From TrEMBL:
The chain crosses the membrane at residues 20-38, 58-78, 85-106, 118-139. Coiled coil: none annotated. It comes from the Bacteria. It holds the Pfam family DUF6198. InterPro entries: YczE/YyaS-like. This is Integral membrane protein. Keywords: Membrane, Transmembrane, Transmembrane helix. It comes from Streptomyces caeruleatus.
């Protein structure tokens, strides 16, 4: 039985193109899915509750606020000694731009007959996007990195760190005017299973061996937000 030789330049290049494509498509779809949840008006994912609340108070768009908050969270990586990847930095900008762009194109939704499908589509697409960008393996989003960094520095579980951070984010965002509702709860209980499903579906084979690797070095407990 022959052993596989070293990967050719074409294979390596194709592998990189696939990973980059997954990264940027995933981040763009993530921003678009978040826009669907905003337009549905039935409750947002935790960090966007904060983003929307800050947008209400500052007059900035929710996408611009998302970029500013993402950059601020990334600065918190410094004392936590976290190292960002291409995906981490791209996440800060692409998600916010895609969110604002999608909101500019979406018509207003007034009836539940429209808002409920928007909510469900937003949650499912969010799971698809999470699987795409994490499976590309270019680094976690700034908010996930904050949770894993706190886990490393404090020794507390990722689940506890995530719960504490997102609870604080939701409470603060709600106090500022962000939308909390049935969509927030539905997102919380469904995004984990959806993300794991799409992580397996979009796993990128290794360029050298053709084996499938899913989100190397990315703790499962942190897979919830780019």
């Amino acid at each position: 039985m022959s052993t596989p030789g070293p990967p050719t330049k074409r294979r390596v290049r194709g592998h990189l193109v696939r990973r980059l494509s997954q990264l940027y498509v995933g981040l763009a779809v993530y921003g678009a899915s978040s826009a669907l949840l905003v337009e549905a008006g039935l409750g947002l994912e935790p960090w966007n509750v904060l983003h929307q609340g800050l947008a209400e108070r500052t007059g900035l768009t929710i996408g611009v606020v998302s970029i500013i908050v993402g950059a601020a969270v990334l600065l918190l990586w410094i004392p936590l000694r976290q190292l960002p990847g291409l995906g981490t930095v791209s996440n800060v900008f692409v998600v916010g731009l895609a969110m604002d762009g999608t909101l500019a194109l979406l018509p207003e939704a007034h009836t539940l007959a429209v808002r409920i499908p928007l909510l469900l589509a937003g949650i499912v697409l969010n799971g698809v996007a999470t699987g795409l960008y994490i499976a590309a393996r270019f680094g976690p989003g700034p908010r996930d990195g904050l949770m894993t960094g706190l886990h490393r520095r404090t020794g507390r579980s990722i689940r506890l760190m995530r719960t504490a951070v997102e609870a604080a984010v939701v409470v603060t965002g709600f106090a500022l005017g962000g939308t909390v509702g049935v969509g927030t709860v539905l997102y919380a209980v469904s995004i984990g299973p959806l993300a794991q499903l799409f992580l397996r579906l979009f796993a990128v084979p290794s360029a050298s061996k053709g084996s499938t690797v899913v989100a190397t070095g990315q703790p499962r407990g942190a897979i919830l937000r780019p």
